[in-house]
From TrEMBL:
<keyword id="KW-0418">Kinase</keyword>
<keyword id="KW-0414">Isoprene biosynthesis</keyword>
<dbReference type="GO" id="GO:0016114">
    <property type="term" value="P:terpenoid biosynthetic process"/>
</dbReference>
<dbReference type="InterPro" id="IPR020568">
    <property type="entry name" value="Ribosomal_Su5_D2-typ_SF"/>
</dbReference>
<dbReference type="InterPro" id="IPR004424">
    <property type="entry name" value="IspE"/>
</dbReference>
<comment type="function">
    <text>Catalyzes the phosphorylation of the position 2 hydroxy group of 4-diphosphocytidyl-2C-methyl-D-erythritol.</text>
</comment>
<dbReference type="Pfam" id="PF08544">
    <property type="entry name" value="GHMP_kinases_C"/>
</dbReference>
<dbReference type="Pfam" id="PF00288">
    <property type="entry name" value="GHMP_kinases_N"/>
</dbReference>
<dbReference type="GO" id="GO:0019288">
    <property type="term" value="P:isopentenyl diphosphate biosynthetic process, methylerythritol 4-phosphate pathway"/>
</dbReference>
<feature type="active site">
    <location>
        <position position="135"/>
    </location>
</feature>
<dbReference type="GO" id="GO:0050515">
    <property type="term" value="F:4-(cytidine 5'-diphospho)-2-C-methyl-D-erythritol kinase activity"/>
</dbReference>
<keyword id="KW-0547">Nucleotide-binding</keyword>
<dbReference type="InterPro" id="IPR036554">
    <property type="entry name" value="GHMP_kinase_C_sf"/>
</dbReference>
<dbReference type="InterPro" id="IPR013750">
    <property type="entry name" value="GHMP_kinase_C_dom"/>
</dbReference>
<feature type="domain" description="GHMP kinase C-terminal">
    <location>
        <begin position="197"/>
        <end position="270"/>
    </location>
</feature>
<comment type="similarity">
    <text>Belongs to the GHMP kinase family. IspE subfamily.</text>
</comment>
<protein>
    <recommendedName>
        <fullName>4-diphosphocytidyl-2-C-methyl-D-erythritol kinase</fullName>
        <ecNumber>2.7.1.148</ecNumber>
    </recommendedName>
</protein>
Length: 288
């Protein structure tokens, strides 16, 4: 039996540099793992079947699940015909902009590489990860990284102190594809100062990191769901150093000095609809 944690991510900054011929967008985004995670347990199957059980009704349990797709992709690309039973405990809110499915897919690739003794090197796992989704290559390694291209061109960055994070997930999800499509319909606004964010990370300066937060998708998702602006303001009033929507949303995160302070900020968010979670920034995933 093998058990792995699959960590959620937030985007500390997200800028779009252009539209690609394949319909995807050219990104410049600083991605950051957080301690909040799903859990995957791999155990032997009697036959060559792949099976998945999941404790959440919010995600598909069959072949559309990214965990299942990761297992099939590994078998298609190797001589392995072994089966596996995978059990998935979902804790990362779904369709939130927190990369939950991507984290699970990365954990499935890394876990099965070990469980099936495939011996695939990190570069091969990374190219398979990119087939499953733009966020999956980052999730394989985690930590703090600058992502370019579709999200798969990664430059690792120095680890940040374990700042506290308050996550506010409104009671609805959004489709990432729909948010990018809505972005294309709007006049381009100013992007975040990625260079300033990179300098703040190099200096491991939490206050400067908080000051440099920015996401060009935030006004897009907020125009579809204005409550996102209310949540961001509520996080600031409650004492977060700064707050921002993650990825394509709708989850909004507030950064705090540490996890205890994040707990105090969360306790003041009495009027915010949806789910409130307290966590912290996390380093990279040695298990992967
Ligand atoms: C918003 C982010 O989470 C920021 O990290 C990612 O860009 C999205 O990552 P993801 O959900 O893993 O993305 P995918 O599953 O590969 O793509 C979902 C949809 O998002 C859009 N998409 C995604 C990534 C990208 N660089 N450009 C895009 O336009 C495409 O319409 C695609 O059909
Ligand atoms: N293991 C999984 N966990 C969550 N969602 C999954 C999984 N497998 C497939 N999905 C599907 O993927 C969709 C997006 O879910 P996910 O939680 O990954 O969104 P997200 O956090 O917005 O992703 P991202 O930030 O990478 O854009 C869901 O609608 C869900 O049906």
């Amino acid at each position: 039996m093998l058990e792995l944690a699959a960590h959620a991510k937030i985007n500390l900054s997200l800028d779009i540099k252009g539209r690609r011929a394949d319909g995807y967008h050219e990104l410049e985004t600083v991605m950051q793992s957080i301690a909040l995670h799903d859990r995957l347990v791999f155990s032997a199957a009697a036959d060559g079947a792949i099976s998945l059980e999941c404790d959440s009704g919010e995600v598909p349990a069959g072949p559309e699940n990214l965990v299942y797709r990761a297992a099939l992709l590994l078998r298609e690309n190797t001589r392995c015909r072994r089966g596996v039973r995978i059990s998935l405990a979902k804790r990362i809110p779904v369709a939130a902009g927190l990369g939950g499915g991507s984290a699970d897919a990365a954990a499935a690739l890394a876990g099965l590489n070990r469980f099936w003794n495939l011996g695939l090197p990190p570069a091969v796992l990374c190219s398979l990860a990119a087939v499953l989704g733009a966020d999956v290559p980052f999730c394989l390694r985690g930590g703090t990284a600058l992502a370019r291209g579709k999200g798969e061109l990664l430059t690792p960055l120095p680890a940040l102190p374990a700042m506290g994070v308050v996550l506010a997930k409104p009671p609805f999800g959004v489709s990432t594809a729909r948010v990018y499509a809505a972005y294309d319909q709007r006049p381009a606004g100013p992007g975040p100062d990625t260079a300033a964010m990179l300098a703040a990370i190099e200096q491991r300066d939490p206050a400067a990191v908080a000051r440099c937060l920015g996401n060009v998708l935030e006004p897009v998702t907020a125009s579809l769901h204005p409550v996102i602006n209310d949540i961001r303001r509520a996080l600031l009033r409650a004492g977060a150093m700064n707050a921002l929507m993650s990825g394509s949303g709708p989850a909004v995160f507030g950064l705090c000095r540490d996890e205890r302070e994040a707990g105090r900020v969360a306790a003041r968010l009495t009027d915010v609809p949806g789910k409130i979670l307290v966590t912290r920034l996390a380093g990279n995933c040695p298990a992967m």
